[in-house]
Amino acid sequence: xxxxxxxxxxxxxxxxxxxYAADLALVISAPIVLLxxxxxxxxxxxxxxxxxxxxxxxxxxxxxxxxxxxxxxHITSGKVDVVTESRLGEVDEEIASACAGHLPLLVIIxxxxxxxxxxxxxxxxxxxVIGELKCPVLAVPRGVEYGKGIHxxxxxxxxxxxxxxxxVEPIRKLVxxxxxxxxxxxxxTDLDDKPADTHPALLQSLxxxxxxxxxxxxxxEAEGVSTFAEEHNFDLLIxxxxxxxxxxxxxxxxSTKDLVRSSHLPVLFVxx
Length: 272
Hints:
10-stranded mixed β-sheet; 10 strands; alpha/beta; 20% strand
């Protein structure tokens, strides 16, 4: 089984995401790569100076990772293989490098959910990670627990067009791995228009998953998706960050940020 990379800055949101990852890893028998990326802090005075040595930063990172590993070993009774990695550099670049080396099933990060993304790793850098990484990224809101598992997954997409950009294989792999039921969500923002027909070829590409289809009318894509998902007790949302098509405003109107902030559910970003 491919590993799960859990990126952490040791914040409460990151700890919550790690707990979620540990429960998930236990269910699907996946190892965890616990990753911390640290940077050298510099004073903002006229004469910039390093506030702490690189050696001290590295030691602190490794020690905190070791402590977290010990906790995960304890709560999983040693049934989840956990390795730690401490890296110096830019967060998004180092996570991308880790993905290239480990070829993970997904990367898990933490967010504060409805109140917005947390500072540090889980602030603007988290949005950069979501936008740039090629592997799937799961954003887990603070306070959300794995609980009884992932049984119902919503996939947000424009199902009225025969768009070849939908990453069918990664989505099929994730849904099958999680043994979940897939719900297809299309949001129509023009409330006056008649609903467009779904494209048969697009639905056929996902037919092996036996999904249900839902047409949602809402003026805002992100809010429409998250509201529907919460009302119908979904456990996870999947969306595809892209520059054109459904959620085409993603990089202009921060739809990714809106979806992360408006959703109380974990959101999995799978790239086309």
